[in-house]
Structures
1.
Amino acid sequence: ARLTLALDEALPYAATSALLREMSACFPDLELTLLNGTATEVASYVEHERAHVAFHFVRGQLAGIFEQRHIGSVPQGVFVASDHPLATLDIVRRRDLVKYRQLVMHADDVREAPYSPRLWRSDSFYSIAEMVADDLGWAILPVNVGMDDAYDKPLLQLNCPSLALSQLPVRMLWRQGWMPTPTALWVQSRYTELLGRL
């Protein structure tokens, strides 16, 4: 039994780590290959048949060659470096955000709605978070990415109620014509449960 999973690098590590530990126990003979990348890259791995299944943040419409299933969502927030001028405000409004550079997620033709006229774009949430830590601007990030302690400087989540950010949906995708195996269906079900606990 073989399975190749492609995982969005920005998915919550706690859920992914728990999933892999449980897979090891439930499927001791499984030959597993993990591929990591941005949301766009992991979809490409499935498209080019390097992976059977991908899990990633929803970044716009999928090409017609894919099947998909919604499996959960992850909260997002507005983050700055701990010494950024916005970090001194108790409540941050849109008029405060427009004064500073926004670091925006950019993937293929999907364009995020910017709030600031000054923009830098990247296709990686972790790359954006590193730029936030380097005081290059503010960004809307998955909370698990913004709260990661791997950056040179800690990031601070701002209280910005006027943006009313929705949760980021997560989906499983595979190529049309490929029937998910019982193992892949178990992974989908368990990962859905693990993401639901966040």
Note: The longest strand covers residues 66-74.
2.
Amino acid sequence: MTVKIWIGNLGKYNEAISHGDWLTLPIADEEDFAEFLKQKCGIGEEDEFGQPYEEWHICDVYSDIPGITIGEYASVREIMELSEVVEEIESLKDYEYKACLAYMDSFNNDWSEAIDVVKQGRYMHLHWIKDYYSLGEFFFEEGNYKKDISNFLLGFFDYEEFGKRMGSDGTLSEEHGYFEMR
């Protein structure tokens, strides 16, 4: 997984000079970020009048992780928080990552919340379930309802409607499957 932020020197940008570089997240700490700004963006260098360049801005973001965003004038704190989120995402197991994507698709695009829900195990994610019929079959089999219905009546059972009712507390998408908060 990759998250890169192109950070440029705002003072030089205003002078029609593009000066900056890509920062790959996560980064270790604020000192490393300050060193990046100094070495790659020229923050701290002096302009032609002897004034140091102090301002920087985010010009572009590349991420193959859905939902990763950051504003043009993000603070150091915001970049460090995003760096922590990226580090947490990278530590997720594949099924946890998929559950986070399903959470975000179902509720919001907040990676921190999604990671908390998944790490605490407060969810059910059936990534292979793509429709209500399959969801109904799953709940029917897992709930052991078959013992209560004769084989003759079983042929009339509506798995799709059962799936809609049993899955009413969650969300279903073709991309991420069934997701339910617990």
Note: The helical segments are 10-14, 30-41, 76-91, 94-106, 111-119, 132-142, 151-154, 159-166.
